[in-house]
TrEMBL record:
The lineage of its organism: Eukaryota, Metazoa, Chordata, Craniata, Vertebrata. Residues 1-24, 95-115, 289-335 are annotated as: Disordered. Residues 1-12 have a biased composition (Basic and acidic residues). GO terms for biological process: nucleosome assembly. GO terms for cellular component: nucleus. Residues 96-114, 289-321 have a biased composition (Acidic residues). Belongs to the nucleosome assembly protein (NAP) family. Residues 325-335 have a biased composition (Pro residues). SUPFAM superfamilies: NAP-like (SSF143113). This is Nucleosome assembly protein 1-like 4.
Amino acid sequence: MDRKDEKSEARGKGGNKPFQSDKPEGFLQVERTLNFHLLPKAVKRRVYALKRLQLQSANIEAKFYEEVHELERKYAGFYQPIFDKRRDVVAGAVEPTDEECEWQSDREEEDLAEDLQKKAALEEKQADSAGADDPKGVPEFWLTIFKRVDMLGEMLQEHDEPILKHLQDITVKFSEPGQPMIFTLEFHFEPNSYFSNTVLTKVYKMKSEPDADDPFSFEGPEIIDCEGCKIDWHKGKDDSFFNFFNPVKELPDGMDEDLDFTLSTDFEIGHFFRERVIPRAVLYFTGEALEDDESYEEEDLEEGEEEDLDDEGEEEDEGDCDPTKGPPPAECKQQ
Protein backbone atom coordinates (compact mmCIF):
# COMPACT_ATOMS: atom_id res chain seq x y z
CA MET A 1 0.00 0.00 0.00
CA ASP A 2 1.59 3.25 -1.07
CA ARG A 3 1.59 6.36 1.07
CA LYS A 4 -1.22 8.06 -0.79
CA ASP A 5 -3.52 5.02 -0.61
CA GLU A 6 -2.66 4.70 3.07
CA LYS A 7 -3.80 8.27 3.72
CA SER A 8 -7.01 7.67 1.81
CA GLU A 9 -7.76 4.63 3.91
CA ALA A 10 -7.04 6.52 7.09
CA ARG A 11 -9.45 9.28 6.10
CA GLY A 12 -12.13 6.70 5.30
CA LYS A 13 -14.53 6.26 2.43
CA GLY A 14 -15.90 9.77 2.25
CA GLY A 15 -13.20 11.27 0.04
CA ASN A 16 -13.59 12.12 -3.64
CA LYS A 17 -16.89 10.93 -5.01
CA PRO A 18 -16.96 9.51 -8.55
CA PHE A 19 -19.07 11.13 -11.23
CA GLN A 20 -22.73 10.38 -10.56
CA SER A 21 -25.02 9.54 -13.46
CA ASP A 22 -28.53 11.00 -13.56
CA LYS A 23 -29.87 7.47 -13.94
CA PRO A 24 -30.92 5.64 -10.76
CA GLU A 25 -28.54 2.88 -9.65
CA GLY A 26 -31.25 0.26 -10.01
CA PHE A 27 -31.84 1.30 -13.63
CA LEU A 28 -28.12 1.16 -14.37
CA GLN A 29 -27.87 -2.33 -12.90
CA VAL A 30 -30.76 -3.54 -15.05
CA GLU A 31 -29.27 -1.79 -18.07
CA ARG A 32 -25.91 -3.47 -17.56
CA THR A 33 -27.58 -6.85 -17.09
CA LEU A 34 -29.66 -6.45 -20.24
CA ASN A 35 -26.60 -5.41 -22.24
CA PHE A 36 -24.80 -8.55 -21.10
CA HIS A 37 -27.73 -10.80 -21.96
CA LEU A 38 -27.82 -9.34 -25.47
CA LEU A 39 -24.40 -10.83 -26.15
CA PRO A 40 -24.23 -13.98 -28.28
CA LYS A 41 -24.35 -17.19 -26.27
CA ALA A 42 -20.81 -18.16 -27.25
CA VAL A 43 -19.47 -14.78 -26.09
CA LYS A 44 -21.35 -14.98 -22.78
CA ARG A 45 -19.83 -18.43 -22.22
CA ARG A 46 -16.34 -16.95 -22.60
CA VAL A 47 -17.20 -14.06 -20.28
CA TYR A 48 -18.16 -16.59 -17.60
CA ALA A 49 -14.74 -18.15 -18.04
CA LEU A 50 -13.16 -14.71 -17.60
CA LYS A 51 -15.15 -14.20 -14.39
CA ARG A 52 -13.83 -17.51 -13.04
CA LEU A 53 -10.33 -16.23 -13.78
CA GLN A 54 -11.19 -12.99 -11.98
CA LEU A 55 -12.29 -14.98 -8.94
CA GLN A 56 -8.96 -16.83 -8.94
CA SER A 57 -7.22 -13.45 -9.07
CA ALA A 58 -9.24 -12.21 -6.07
CA ASN A 59 -8.24 -15.30 -4.07
CA ILE A 60 -4.57 -14.70 -4.87
CA GLU A 61 -4.96 -11.05 -3.85
CA ALA A 62 -6.41 -12.18 -0.53
CA LYS A 63 -3.34 -14.36 0.09
CA PHE A 64 -1.12 -11.43 -0.83
CA TYR A 65 -2.69 -9.29 1.89
CA GLU A 66 -2.34 -12.10 4.41
CA GLU A 67 1.40 -12.14 3.73
CA VAL A 68 1.50 -8.34 4.01
CA HIS A 69 -0.03 -8.74 7.47
CA GLU A 70 2.69 -11.23 8.36
CA LEU A 71 5.33 -8.75 7.20
CA GLU A 72 3.75 -6.03 9.33
CA ARG A 73 3.86 -8.36 12.31
CA LYS A 74 7.50 -9.22 11.62
CA TYR A 75 8.66 -5.62 11.21
CA ALA A 76 6.70 -4.48 14.25
CA GLY A 77 9.47 -6.17 16.24
CA PHE A 78 12.09 -3.97 14.53
CA TYR A 79 10.12 -0.79 15.19
CA GLN A 80 9.38 -1.54 18.82
CA PRO A 81 12.78 -0.55 20.33
CA ILE A 82 12.42 2.84 18.63
CA PHE A 83 8.90 3.28 19.96
CA ASP A 84 10.05 2.21 23.44
CA LYS A 85 12.73 4.91 23.37
CA ARG A 86 10.12 7.44 22.22
CA ARG A 87 7.89 6.47 25.14
CA ASP A 88 10.74 6.91 27.62
CA VAL A 89 11.68 10.34 26.25
CA VAL A 90 8.06 11.52 26.25
CA ALA A 91 7.52 10.32 29.82
CA GLY A 92 10.80 11.82 31.02
CA ALA A 93 12.22 8.45 32.03
CA VAL A 94 15.22 9.04 29.75
CA GLU A 95 17.01 12.29 28.92
CA PRO A 96 18.40 12.16 25.36
CA THR A 97 22.04 13.04 24.86
CA ASP A 98 23.20 16.21 23.10
CA GLU A 99 24.08 14.12 20.07
CA GLU A 100 20.62 12.56 20.00
CA CYS A 101 19.07 16.04 20.16
CA GLU A 102 20.95 17.42 17.15
CA TRP A 103 18.58 18.34 14.33
CA GLN A 104 19.04 20.42 11.23
CA SER A 105 16.45 23.15 11.73
CA ASP A 106 17.88 25.93 9.55
CA ARG A 107 15.14 25.53 6.97
CA GLU A 108 12.48 25.61 9.66
CA GLU A 109 13.92 28.86 11.04
CA GLU A 110 14.15 30.41 7.57
CA ASP A 111 10.47 29.68 7.04
CA LEU A 112 9.58 31.84 10.06
CA ALA A 113 8.90 35.52 9.55
CA GLU A 114 11.48 37.82 11.16
CA ASP A 115 9.10 39.02 13.89
CA LEU A 116 8.16 35.46 14.73
CA GLN A 117 11.84 34.52 14.95
CA LYS A 118 12.40 37.33 17.46
CA LYS A 119 9.40 36.25 19.49
CA ALA A 120 10.52 32.61 19.43
CA ALA A 121 14.06 33.61 20.50
CA LEU A 122 12.67 35.66 23.40
CA GLU A 123 10.42 32.84 24.56
CA GLU A 124 13.32 30.38 24.32
CA LYS A 125 15.52 32.71 26.39
CA GLN A 126 12.79 33.07 29.01
CA ALA A 127 12.30 29.33 29.09
CA ASP A 128 16.03 28.75 29.57
CA SER A 129 16.14 31.27 32.43
CA ALA A 130 13.36 29.36 34.17
CA GLY A 131 15.44 26.21 34.36
CA ALA A 132 13.98 25.32 37.74
CA ASP A 133 10.60 24.91 36.05
CA ASP A 134 11.97 22.61 33.35
CA PRO A 135 9.09 20.20 32.62
CA LYS A 136 9.55 16.47 32.65
CA GLY A 137 9.71 14.76 29.25
CA VAL A 138 7.30 16.16 26.65
CA PRO A 139 4.16 17.27 28.52
CA GLU A 140 0.76 16.47 27.02
CA PHE A 141 2.36 14.77 24.03
CA TRP A 142 -0.54 12.49 23.15
CA LEU A 143 -3.23 14.95 24.21
CA THR A 144 -1.73 17.50 21.80
CA ILE A 145 -1.92 14.95 18.99
CA PHE A 146 -5.56 14.23 19.78
CA LYS A 147 -6.39 17.93 19.71
CA ARG A 148 -4.49 18.56 16.46
CA VAL A 149 -6.08 15.74 14.45
CA ASP A 150 -9.67 16.52 13.49
CA MET A 151 -10.77 12.89 13.44
CA LEU A 152 -9.59 12.43 17.03
CA GLY A 153 -10.42 15.89 18.32
CA GLU A 154 -14.07 15.39 17.41
CA MET A 155 -14.20 12.55 19.92
CA LEU A 156 -13.06 14.72 22.82
CA GLN A 157 -14.95 16.79 25.33
CA GLU A 158 -13.24 19.35 27.51
CA HIS A 159 -13.53 17.10 30.56
CA ASP A 160 -11.63 14.32 28.71
CA GLU A 161 -8.47 16.40 28.46
CA PRO A 162 -7.26 16.08 32.09
CA ILE A 163 -7.48 12.28 31.75
CA LEU A 164 -5.53 12.18 28.49
CA LYS A 165 -2.73 14.16 30.12
CA HIS A 166 -1.95 10.86 31.85
CA LEU A 167 -1.67 8.95 28.54
CA GLN A 168 1.96 7.86 28.18
CA ASP A 169 1.95 5.72 25.05
CA ILE A 170 -0.17 4.12 22.33
CA THR A 171 1.06 0.87 20.81
CA VAL A 172 -0.19 -1.69 18.31
CA LYS A 173 0.21 -5.45 18.56
CA PHE A 174 -0.44 -7.99 15.83
CA SER A 175 -1.77 -11.53 16.10
CA GLU A 176 0.69 -14.41 16.12
CA PRO A 177 1.66 -16.29 12.93
CA GLY A 178 -1.07 -18.61 11.72
CA GLN A 179 -3.73 -16.87 13.83
CA PRO A 180 -6.69 -14.88 12.43
CA MET A 181 -5.83 -11.35 11.31
CA ILE A 182 -6.12 -9.16 14.42
CA PHE A 183 -4.46 -6.00 15.66
CA THR A 184 -4.78 -4.56 19.15
CA LEU A 185 -4.38 -0.91 20.13
CA GLU A 186 -3.02 -0.46 23.64
CA PHE A 187 -3.35 2.87 25.47
CA HIS A 188 -0.89 3.06 28.37
CA PHE A 189 -1.70 5.38 31.29
CA GLU A 190 0.26 6.43 34.32
CA PRO A 191 -1.52 6.02 37.69
CA ASN A 192 -4.32 8.58 37.93
CA SER A 193 -7.42 9.52 39.90
CA TYR A 194 -9.86 8.59 37.11
CA PHE A 195 -9.57 4.81 36.71
CA SER A 196 -7.41 2.01 38.05
CA ASN A 197 -6.46 0.48 34.67
CA THR A 198 -2.91 1.07 33.48
CA VAL A 199 -3.65 -0.23 29.95
CA LEU A 200 -6.86 0.13 27.92
CA THR A 201 -7.22 -2.05 24.81
CA LYS A 202 -9.20 -2.07 21.59
CA VAL A 203 -9.05 -5.25 19.49
CA TYR A 204 -9.83 -5.11 15.76
CA LYS A 205 -10.66 -8.33 13.94
CA MET A 206 -10.05 -8.46 10.20
CA LYS A 207 -10.60 -10.74 7.27
CA SER A 208 -8.84 -10.99 3.94
CA GLU A 209 -11.01 -13.12 1.70
CA PRO A 210 -13.56 -12.43 -1.01
CA ASP A 211 -17.15 -12.45 0.19
CA ALA A 212 -18.95 -15.59 -0.95
CA ASP A 213 -22.00 -13.57 -2.06
CA ASP A 214 -20.06 -10.74 -3.74
CA PRO A 215 -16.47 -11.89 -4.41
CA PHE A 216 -15.71 -9.15 -6.94
CA SER A 217 -16.16 -6.42 -4.33
CA PHE A 218 -12.95 -7.54 -2.59
CA GLU A 219 -10.43 -4.69 -2.30
CA GLY A 220 -8.21 -5.94 0.51
CA PRO A 221 -8.52 -6.67 4.22
CA GLU A 222 -11.46 -5.20 6.09
CA ILE A 223 -12.27 -4.88 9.76
CA ILE A 224 -15.26 -7.06 10.60
CA ASP A 225 -15.53 -6.58 14.36
CA CYS A 226 -13.92 -4.88 17.33
CA GLU A 227 -13.81 -5.44 21.08
CA GLY A 228 -13.15 -2.86 23.76
CA CYS A 229 -12.33 -3.39 27.42
CA LYS A 230 -13.87 -2.74 30.81
CA ILE A 231 -12.69 0.49 32.41
CA ASP A 232 -12.55 0.44 36.19
CA TRP A 233 -13.68 3.99 36.76
CA HIS A 234 -13.42 5.70 40.08
CA LYS A 235 -16.82 7.00 41.13
CA GLY A 236 -18.15 9.84 38.99
CA LYS A 237 -15.17 9.92 36.60
CA ASP A 238 -16.65 8.29 33.48
CA ASP A 239 -16.08 10.47 30.38
CA SER A 240 -17.05 10.74 26.73
CA PHE A 241 -13.95 9.85 24.70
CA PHE A 242 -13.67 6.58 26.57
CA ASN A 243 -16.85 5.30 24.94
CA PHE A 244 -14.31 4.37 22.27
CA PHE A 245 -13.55 1.33 24.45
CA ASN A 246 -17.21 0.27 24.47
CA PRO A 247 -18.01 -0.04 20.75
CA VAL A 248 -21.49 -0.68 19.39
CA LYS A 249 -22.19 -4.12 17.98
CA GLU A 250 -23.90 -5.25 14.81
CA LEU A 251 -27.47 -6.29 15.57
CA PRO A 252 -28.61 -9.88 14.75
CA ASP A 253 -31.28 -8.56 12.37
CA GLY A 254 -28.85 -6.27 10.53
CA MET A 255 -27.75 -2.65 10.82
CA ASP A 256 -29.53 0.61 10.24
CA GLU A 257 -27.78 3.54 8.55
CA ASP A 258 -26.75 5.25 11.81
CA LEU A 259 -25.26 2.08 13.27
CA ASP A 260 -23.42 1.31 10.04
CA PHE A 261 -21.95 4.84 10.05
CA THR A 262 -20.87 4.52 13.69
CA LEU A 263 -19.13 1.20 13.08
CA SER A 264 -17.46 2.47 9.90
CA THR A 265 -16.15 5.52 11.75
CA ASP A 266 -14.84 3.32 14.57
CA PHE A 267 -13.00 1.12 12.07
CA GLU A 268 -11.51 4.15 10.30
CA ILE A 269 -10.20 5.50 13.60
CA GLY A 270 -8.62 2.14 14.41
CA HIS A 271 -6.84 2.10 11.05
CA PHE A 272 -5.76 5.70 11.50
CA PHE A 273 -4.14 5.01 14.87
CA ARG A 274 -2.39 1.94 13.50
CA GLU A 275 -1.17 3.27 10.16
CA ARG A 276 -0.63 6.97 10.79
CA VAL A 277 -0.61 8.17 14.39
CA ILE A 278 1.48 5.47 16.07
CA PRO A 279 4.25 5.33 13.43
CA ARG A 280 4.47 9.14 13.01
CA ALA A 281 3.43 10.47 16.41
CA VAL A 282 6.07 13.21 16.71
CA LEU A 283 5.09 14.62 13.30
CA TYR A 284 1.48 14.92 14.41
CA PHE A 285 2.67 16.56 17.63
CA THR A 286 4.60 19.20 15.67
CA GLY A 287 1.88 19.51 13.01
CA GLU A 288 4.12 18.50 10.10
CA ALA A 289 2.09 15.37 9.37
CA LEU A 290 -1.06 17.49 9.23
CA GLU A 291 0.48 19.69 6.53
CA ASP A 292 1.46 16.57 4.62
CA ASP A 293 -2.07 15.19 4.91
CA GLU A 294 -3.57 18.47 3.71
CA SER A 295 -1.32 18.59 0.64
CA TYR A 296 -2.43 15.10 -0.36
CA GLU A 297 -6.08 15.98 0.29
CA GLU A 298 -5.77 19.02 -1.99
CA GLU A 299 -4.12 16.89 -4.66
CA ASP A 300 -6.87 14.27 -4.38
CA LEU A 301 -9.52 16.97 -4.60
CA GLU A 302 -7.97 18.50 -7.71
CA GLU A 303 -7.74 15.09 -9.37
CA GLY A 304 -11.35 14.36 -8.48
CA GLU A 305 -12.54 17.68 -9.92
CA GLU A 306 -10.62 17.04 -13.15
CA GLU A 307 -12.18 13.57 -13.45
CA ASP A 308 -15.66 14.97 -12.87
CA LEU A 309 -15.11 17.62 -15.56
CA ASP A 310 -13.85 14.98 -18.00
CA ASP A 311 -16.84 12.73 -17.29
CA GLU A 312 -19.29 15.61 -17.68
CA GLY A 313 -17.64 16.60 -20.94
CA GLU A 314 -17.90 13.06 -22.28
CA GLU A 315 -21.57 12.86 -21.36
CA GLU A 316 -22.26 16.19 -23.10
CA ASP A 317 -20.46 14.94 -26.22
CA GLU A 318 -22.49 11.74 -26.17
CA GLY A 319 -25.65 13.81 -25.86
CA ASP A 320 -24.74 15.71 -29.05
CA CYS A 321 -24.45 12.48 -31.05
CA ASP A 322 -28.06 11.65 -31.98
CA PRO A 323 -28.08 8.72 -34.44
CA THR A 324 -31.65 9.64 -35.54
CA LYS A 325 -30.46 12.92 -37.01
CA GLY A 326 -28.03 11.71 -39.60
CA PRO A 327 -24.23 11.33 -39.35
CA PRO A 328 -22.71 12.72 -36.19
CA PRO A 329 -20.21 15.59 -36.22
CA ALA A 330 -16.59 14.57 -36.75
CA GLU A 331 -15.61 15.11 -33.12
CA CYS A 332 -18.10 12.55 -31.81
CA LYS A 333 -17.95 9.86 -34.49
CA GLN A 334 -17.62 6.39 -33.00
CA GLN A 335 -14.32 4.73 -33.68
